[in-house]
Amino acid sequence: MSLHFYPLKVKANKKKLPDCVSIVFDVPQNLQSNFKCLLKDKILLYEKQ
C-alpha cells in the first residue's frame, strides 16, 4: 500500500467529545474517487509547516 498526500481544505469541523472531533474536507471533484472511506477507516493528518 502506498501513501499519497493531498492539500485539502477543511470545510467544517465539530467537537464531538472532549477528545474527539469530526472533520469534513472539501475534496475536489477530480480527487473524489481517491477518498472513498469506509466506516472505521483511519487517516493521517499533518499540519503544513
The oligomerization state is single chain
Distance between the termini: 26 Å
Topology order in helix (H) and strand (E) letters: EE
Average pLDDT for all residues: 81
Number of strands: 2
CA-based gyration radius: 12 Å
Q: What is the overall number of helices?
A: 0
Which strand order does the major sheet show?
Answer: 1-2
Describe the protein's architecture and organization.
This protein has 49 residues and is mostly beta strands. It has one domain. 0% of the residues lie in helices and 33% in strands. It has no helices and two strands. The protein has strands at residues 9-17, 20-26. A two-stranded antiparallel sheet has the order 1-2.
What topology does this entry show?
Layout: E1 9-17, E2 20-26
List keywords for this structure.
two-stranded antiparallel sheet; mainly beta; 2 strands; 49 residues
Give a quick precis of the structure.
The chain has 49 residues and is an all-beta fold. The chain is 0% helix and 33% strand. It has one domain.
